[in-house]
């Protein structure tokens, strides 16, 4: 079957327009039911420019056009979850200016920092990575299994290898979280490369959450 394309379709990125996503007509997905997550206390925003975004929890890349109205439902770790016309979207920190927000500050590290100091900063950065729907960082959720700092043989630059998992193997935000982890770890001075591997053995369980996260979610 030949696929006809809706006007506005731009490569692999869907464009949000007039309350709907524009899909190729032969590839239109079923629309999931998403409960409104904003309240009267949610901050209203208007997009000042076209902005790259990711649908939550599907993980599809879209472009939200300038002039769109929405509500910030979560602002944690330098990224934003915005409710727009019945759907949730994740806005990366680097695109925060589109909704009037300042970009996250850069990181500083002493020139003679030890591997232990770098590793501590790695875990600090991992705690700035959040599931767009859950107000807990991936460390407290128990999603990070290990983060190892080493030195590359070719130039002695630092490399970090992270093994992490997801609460469910089919989570549409998996690659988004992986990219977020990689980019935030590579923001650390002296780290030239970060490799992030998704693993599902052992499978994630609620017992892996921190005590604070379990207490907050009523899972203790």
UniProtKB/TrEMBL annotation:
Gene3D superfamilies: Fe-S cluster assembly (FSCA). Transmembrane segments: none annotated. InterPro entries: Fe-S_Maturation_MIP18 (IPR052339), FeS_assembly_SufT_put (IPR017776), FSCA_dom_sf (IPR034904), MIP18-like (IPR002744). Residues 122-196 form the MIP18 family-like domain. Pfam families: FeS_assembly_P (PF01883). This is MIP18 family-like domain-containing protein. It comes from Xanthomonas euvesicatoria pv. vesicatoria (strain 85-10) (Xanthomonas campestris pv. vesicatoria). The lineage of its organism: Bacteria, Pseudomonadati, Pseudomonadota, Gammaproteobacteria, Lysobacterales.
